[in-house]
Amino acid sequence: MKKILLAFLIITSVIASKAQDSSSGQQAVQMLKEFYTAYNTAWSTTKGYVLIKKLDSLQRKYCTKKLRNEVKEIGLDHDPLIGIDYTDVEHLKTLSITKDPGNANGYIVFYMAHTLSASNKPTDEKVVIHVIVVKEEGVAKIASVS
Questions:
Q1: What is the mean pLDDT of residues 16-44?
Q2: pTM metric for this prediction
């Protein structure tokens, strides 16, 4: 009887752990969707000082302190958070986020960027951003992008 009870407790614990991981993963995907929607929209619709303030506010809410410092060092000439030098709200129509099967805290952000080729012809560029999400002070935040 004790063996059955022990087996039951172990199975219940494993199932609860998997459910919690799934819920945490869904929260991370939702957070990333919110971030990339707001961040790309800010880049596409705002300019100058107002843009800088909006981006800083979004970075404070969604990124770890370490990542914010790294992004500030790079500057706005090439923002690694969006994965491309130019963004548009149209790109958000193709936004998708999936769990990275090779990394426990990893997610893959994907969208198509409508841009111009080297010969000035309209083209679509696949943007793929590998994102690591960690908890900072109990809140899921973006820790790195590549």
A1: 80
A2: 0.79
